[in-house]
Specification:
The chain is of the alpha+beta class. 30% of the residues lie in helices and 17% in strands. The longest helix is centred in the middle third of the chain and has 12 residues.
């Protein structure tokens, strides 16, 4: 049985990370549609005018105004940049970035709990391998 939480997303007991809840709110909010909005089919979203988005929108929802950090977070949750091809070439408007994730779909907030952050190698493994010296063969 699902219930609607105070942010308007449905949950069925699974914890949805704050980043995803904030992202959903951003994309759904009509007041941000000039800078971040759903694609026509609702299977992806666009970020338009990255400089304005970073300056005006990111600080209201996150502790930073860094577009690269926002994109890094998207990548860590498995979002992929959509490459659009129009008229045989890459899309001309470079300030329109489009991202998609199979479980980030307009009208289906219940899918958010299926999005998991990618897990990297344990810190101990990183420290171990970074201290190893590999002999150079000549």
């Amino acid at each position: 049985m699902s219930s609607r939480d105070h942010r308007g997303t449905e949950s069925s007991g699974g914890a949805v990370p704050a980043f995803l809840t904030k992202l959903w709110t951003l994309v759904e909010d009509p007041s941000t549609n000039e800078l971040i909005f759903w694609s026509t089919k609702g299977a992806s979203f666009h970020v338009y005018d990255q400089a304005r988005f970073a300056k005006e929108v990111l600080p209201k929802f996150f502790k930073h105004n860094n577009m690269a950090s926002f994109v890094r977070q998207l990548n860590m949750y498995g979002f992929r940049k959509v490459m659009n091809v129009e008229s045989g070439g890459l899309k001309a408007d470079r300030d329109d970035m489009e991202f998609s994730h199979q479980n980030f779909v307009r009208g289906k907030p219940n899918l958010l709990e299926q999005i998991k952050r990618k897990v990297g190698p344990p810190v101990n493994a990183i420290l171990f391998f970074s201290s190893c010296r590999v002999p150079v063969l000549r």
